[in-house]
Amino acid sequence: MSPALQSRLMVDAPTGDLAVEQHVYDTGRVRAQESTERGRGHRSYSTAARHDATGQIVARTKLAFEADDDTHARQRVTIVEPAHRGHRLGLLVKSANHAYARANEPALRVIDAWNAEDNTHMRAVNAMLGFQPVDSWSVFQLPVPSGDTSGTMAA
Hints:
Distance between the termini: 44 Å
Largest sheet: 4 strands, mixed
Order of helices and strands: HHEEEHEH
Strand order of the largest sheet: 1-2-3-4
């Protein structure tokens, strides 16, 4: 896993009008997160693409089983380094990872994925892989005024 690539995820993925902050990952944070997931009984499958000339991980995806239900997984991260976009790396790593998971999880029947409505590239990748929309969610965000240290907010 590339901590630098993981750190780009929240600022690179289209999120409409939501204000998002970049999460900074290093190797220690990634290992701690993965250890926590394993401790909860989660298991996951990841596939990455490496740029041979530099050795840099330029695309990555992750599929996670987060419950005892071997038939159901959740698509997590799929990201491609901006300089390497436009070569179908997202589709390639995601497709390869699904095949890898299916080969090791014969009971797998359903994969859930979600994307912002304006994330047209990943929605196109998901459509090519056979995903079908089944639900729509709305996300609301309210800025909290800074400087109020009293612990209460006026209505």
